[in-house]
Every structure is written in structure tokens, then in C-alpha cells.
Amino acid sequence: MTAPTALPNSAIAGRHSSKDKTAYGLAEAAFQQSSLPVLDKLENFPRFSTKRALARFMAKEQLFQQILPITGIIVECGVYNGAGLFTWAQLSNIHEPVNYTRKIVGFDTFEGFPSVNAVDNQGSLHSQPGDICGSPLEELERSVEKYNSERHLAHIPNVELVKGDFTQTAAQYLEANPHTIISLLYLDFDLYEPTKKALELFLPRMPKGAIVAFDEINCESFPGETRALQEIVGIGTHEIRRFPFEPWVSYMVL
């Protein structure tokens, strides 16, 4: 029998070997063919998850540990299917269950890229409006409801999803929330213009010890993120760190 092959929607096909595709296909088949009820599959998630997904979770756990003593909300720029947003939310619920001021705010169009700058297509991938469209807002809101059911202070909402073009919604958010301080800014827009806008607007809201994390700097498929960093912060102004077990997550401690 030939082993199944597959890739998650977020994967760039050219960067994955046939062995990777086989591993993904086997993971999908194991999950679908298991006789376990869905809740038991979730409870035993390391059995079904991929090494890639667990490595990303571990990287974000280590980022979160570093900002635990830092005041401020967490901003996720690019929600997609919610893995990052709900990682921060779950970690906050576990490690600091009474810190209701640690809001997790996710910005996304929930309809894919709103526009693409010429800078974004100077790499190896041709992007266009509508690309990288993840879960609908309504589905993510149901997951927020599930998350709140396990929170100690569930009567005080701490997850907010902001829909729309970030180049417009970010300033509106700050105007409506002038008290905002940011402890962690996670940049996963993939694109030049919204990443640049996030750095322009949010860096002045970040105290010493806060973290700016990047999902696609030094990435030939999405060169816009590096360009935005270069223009707003500069490459040599801070140490840009990474994790030995995860190839893409990079970060700066301010």
C-alpha cells in the first residue's frame, strides 16, 4: 500500500520533501482512521500532531515565558486558523489565570491578503489579494467561547478579534484603547505594508523587556517582512534571536 501524502495549507510546497509529505499524509490518515472519539483525540494530541506543529508551540511557549513579568497585552498580527492566538490565550489562562489585563488581540481580514505591494513579490513566491485565507471569523468566535468556558475570570473577556484591513483598523483600535501597552507583538502578516504599519504604531507602546516576534523575516517567499523591519527598526539595532528547533520564528527583546 502506498503511504498517503499531503501538506497543510500553510506549507510552501517547494520547501517540503517527499518524506515530509508522507509524514503529513500519515498524520492525517492516523487522525481520520482512529476509532477514538474526537475529545480523546484532542486529549492525546501529541500522538496525532506533527513535529512541525509541536515545535512551533514550544517556541511560542518560550516566548510567553519571557514576557510573563512584562505588563501589556499580546497582539497577534495575522490570525489565520487561530493556532497562535489560542496558544497565547491558553498559556495565559494556565500561567496567569488572574491576569485579566493580558488581553490577546488578533488582527486579520479573515478574507486573505487585502492587497499586495510590489515589494512582496520580489521573492520566490508570487502573492496576490485573497491569498492565505484562514478560518472564518464566526468559527474562531466559537473557539473563543470554548476557551472562555475554562477561564477563571470568564466574565471579563480577554480575547478580541479585529476584522478588516490592518492599515485602517490598527489606528482605530489604539484610538478606542488609548491605555494600550503591548508586551508581545507577533508579526505574521507575511506582507510589507501591514507589517510596517504594525511596527510604526505599536513599537511606541512597548516597554523595555517586551518582545517583537516575526514569522517570516529572512524568508525569500515573503521578503516584505524583512523590508519593513529594515525600514522601521533597522537590522543591526537589536539582536535577532531564533530557536534551534524551529526554523522560522525569530524575535527581538526590546
Q: What report would you give on this structure?
A:
The chain is 39% helix and 14% strand. The protein has 2 domains: 1-49, no CATH class; 51-253, Vaccinia Virus protein VP39 (Rossmann fold, 3-Layer(aba) Sandwich), CATH 3.40.50.150. The radius of gyration is 18 Å and the shape is globular. With 254 residues, the protein is an alpha/beta fold. It has a 7-stranded mixed beta sheet with strand order 3-2-1-4-5-7-6, sandwiched between helices. The chain has helices spanning 18-33, 38-43, 45-48, 51-67, 83-95, 137-148, 166-176, 192-202, 224-232, and strands spanning 73-77, 104-108, 159-163, 182-187, 211-214, 241-243, 246-253. Helix 4 crosses helix 5. This is dTDP-6-deoxy-L-hexose 3-O-methyltransferase. Keywords: Methyltransferase, Transferase. It comes from Microvirgula aerodenitrificans.
> Which strand order spans the largest sheet, edge to edge or round the barrel?
3-2-1-4-5-7-6
Could you name the ranges where pLDDT drops below 50 across 5 or more consecutive residues?
Answer: none
Rounded Rg: 18 Å
First and last CA, distance: 53 Å
Largest sheet: 7 strands, mixed
SSE succession: HHHHEHEHEHEHEHEE
Q: What level of helicity do the residues show?
A: 25-40%
Number of helices: 9
CATH architecture of the largest domain: 3-Layer(aba) Sandwich
Q: Average pLDDT across residues?
A: 94
Instruction: Report the strand count.
Output: 7
- CATH secondary-structure class of the largest domain: Alpha Beta
Q: Structural class, please?
A: alpha/beta
Number of domains: 2
CATH-derived topology of the largest domain: Rossmann fold
Q: Quick one: overall form?
A: globular
CATH superfamily of the largest domain: Vaccinia Virus protein VP39
Protein name: dTDP-6-deoxy-L-hexose 3-O-methyltransferase
Keywords: Methyltransferase, Transferase
GO molecular function: methyltransferase activity
